[in-house]
Amino acid sequence: MWSITIDEVEAIAIGAGILGTGGGGSPYLGMLRMQDMLRHGYQVNVIDIDDVADDALVTEVGMMGAPTVGIEKMPGGDEPLWAIEALESYIGRPIDAIACAEVGGGNSIEPLIAGALTGKPVVDGDAMGRAFPELQMSTHLIAGVKPTPGVLVDEKNNRVLFSHITDANTLERFARDVCVQMGCTAMLVTTLMTGKQIKATSVPRTLTLAKRVGEAVLRARRTKESHTQAVLDVTGGSELFAGKLVDVQRKTTGGFARGELVCEGLGVYRGDWLHIAFQNENLVAWRGGRDTRDTVVACVPDLICLLETETGEPITTEQLRYGLRVTVLGIPCTDQFRTPVALKVVGPAAFGYPDVTYIPMPKTPGIGIA
User: Fold this and answer.
1) Spatial contact of 303 and 19, defined as CB atoms under 8 Å apart
2) How many other C-beta atoms lie within 10 A of the C-beta of residue 271?
3) How many helices and strands, by DSSP H and E, does the chain display?
4) Which residues contact 300 (CB under 8 A, 6 or more apart)?
5) How far is Cα 370 from Cα 362, in angstroms, rounded to an integer?
6) How many CB atoms lie under 10 A from the CB of residue 296?
7) Is a pLDDT exceeding 90 seen at residue 48?
8) pLDDT value at position 67?
9) In terms of DSSP bridges, do strands 273-279 and 256-265 run parallel, antiparallel, or are they unpaired?
10) What is the pLDDT of residue 254?
11) Are 183 and 154 in contact (CB under 8 A)?
12) Number of structural domains found in the chain
């Protein structure tokens, strides 16, 4: 078990922003909140996933909703505490530890905030090794863990308990509708698991991975070395493109930020174009012309990550704007998402791209997302 420091929060926020593939909420806002709590005497401990007792009771904590709303509609701050209290009241016993639903973006920080508020340890692992827009896109739920009971809480302490929902897709639809009524962003605590289940179905040590990615970026800034290479040395994968954003089409609808960006190539990519479709997270990237999408270069469940070229800062989909200079990386996903069963849930067809064929990015043993 290790205690998070103020500097480590910054590294985790940068790394999780990159692993979030554009989604997961603002890592910057989460970082500010967590650092302020540490300065005021709060403490949060991270426990290695192998050290969780088999009979421990663990639940996931994370924000649900559109990240475009999350940067304007600020949380009250106590939503994780309220949600965990409501769940504990329903099940009649305490939760022993907290887990990340997704390591991406601000949702890597929310479990740390929950751990600080409740005094419970946070498990070093998550259910995605990245961020995804819908809750059924989880290694736990794909493996058969029950999605309920769960609680959705807004900044006014309105609490909605989902005592029993038949399957994860149905919970996604019901919870998404409630989330929209709560203002399009709310705290979700769900997927109650034993320690044995979380060890069997998690993507392990992703908080540590996010910290290592962030530390690599910060080190590259200090030494004036390549941010791109620093990230790839930790995660594996490859550079897909570099250029300037010339068009962003984005709208908030149905509780998601949906849209597409167009990037004009610079440097070795001059004369080429990249198109990326997103639903909170980046989904499919195509090389082509200004108005054509000719060749798929990466797609879900592998990660498509945008970095600000000069600083290596992660670019989330709510930050996309004309003129940004970006470097686009492709990072291999967890092997748990590469099975035929999982691809039905997280592959391109699940997002409405049945004509896109998923070709896994090559992985380097011992590097990146397990």
Assistant:
1) yes
2) 9
3) 11, 16
4) 132, 281, 283, 284, 346, 347, 348, 350, 351, 358
5) 13
6) 18
7) yes
8) 84
9) antiparallel
10) 87
11) yes
12) 2
- List the structure tokens of 331: 């990072």
At residue 204, what are phi and psi to the nearest 5 degrees? -80, 150
Whether 54 contacts 252, CB under 8 Å: no
Range of the domain at 114: 2-204
Asked whether residue 54 falls in the same domain as residue 177, the answer is yes
Residue 39 host element (H or E): helix 27-39
Confidence of residue 178 (pLDDT cuts 50, 70, 90): very high
Q: Report which DSSP code applies to 362.
A: P
pLDDT at 4 exceeding the cut of 90: yes
For residue 217, what are its two tokens?
Answer: 């970026």
Exposure string over 319-349, b if 16+ CB within 10 A, otherwise e? bbeeebebbbbbbbbbebbbeeebbebbbbb
Query: Domain for residue 173, yes or no?
Result: yes
Q: Which two tokens mark 318?
A: 């709510």
Neighbours of 90 (CB within 10 A): 15
Yes or no: say if 19 and 107 are a contact pair by the CB < 8 Å rule: no
Residue indicated by tokens 């397990």: 370
Instruction: Tell me: do 51 and 125 sit in the same domain.
Output: yes
User: 263-290 pLDDT, tens per residue?
Assistant: 999 999 999 999 999 999 999 999 999 9
How far is Cα 190 from Cα 244, in angstroms, rounded to an integer?
39
Asked whether the beta carbons of 257 and 317 are under 8 A apart, the reply is: yes
